[in-house]
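Milestone M4 deliverable, item 7.
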Amino acid sequence: MFTYDEPVFRPPSEARSLILQATIGCSHNRCRFCYMYKSKKFRVKPWDRLKTEIDAVARIRPDIKRIFLADGHAFVLGAEKLERILSYCNESFPTLQRITAYATPQNLLNKTVGEMQRLRSLGLAILYYGVETGDPELLDRTQKGATPDEMVEGCLRAQEAGLKLSITVILGLAGREGSLRHARATADLLNRIQPRYLSALTLMLGGYEEEYRRGMPEEFNFNSPLDDISELKELLGHLGTDRCIFRTNHASNYLALKGTLMKDRHRLLEEIDRALELPERHLRGEWMRGL
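Output delivered:
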């Protein structure tokens, strides 16, 4: 039997991957900007059940090439548990090329470089990691659970182990008043990490707008779509992440961009300027945005 505990989320680049729920929900689940797992209580899926699900898929699709370990961050599991999962996936799917997962700052800090190197040798290739912002005050207000220095330490440790990081930041997180500070501090943090992949998302809160506002300064105002695009321009203008694949193809965004930094930064900034000049032509309508 193979069933999902819904809702299930995955990065855009994992559209053709087998999704295995090694954990249910998110063990942190306190970030003010995220409501994906509010309906779930975090728990680890028992090994016997996960093994049965892997067996069920392997019987009908032994040619699986990519696996995404869900939910919110399966990387919270200890190194030995992850090694068992990765090893069994490799045994079950002979053509498997890579395994990926979400990770949090504490996940990276709680594992040694040696442990992550072993996981890399078993096929773990990419960790999807939310930086969100480099502004320490904003990290605290949004209850991310880490400081900029802690995130840099964990990310550099993972990269030393040979893992690729696909990092996300969130436009609009600081509102209109804190937009420039948020963009510049985030660029500074990313320049210290030098990730392989980088994506910008746009703040979407569903029915949690007032809850988010209560955690912000009294003068806080949400960004307009043009504020978000201006913030994206400020972020790109301060980035120095060389040979970094950059995307804004997430469903939350008003403007879809793709390129490689720093090679394509000038072109990307020109596309942003065109969108600011003619937003009705270049920006997605609200009906096209969603999670």
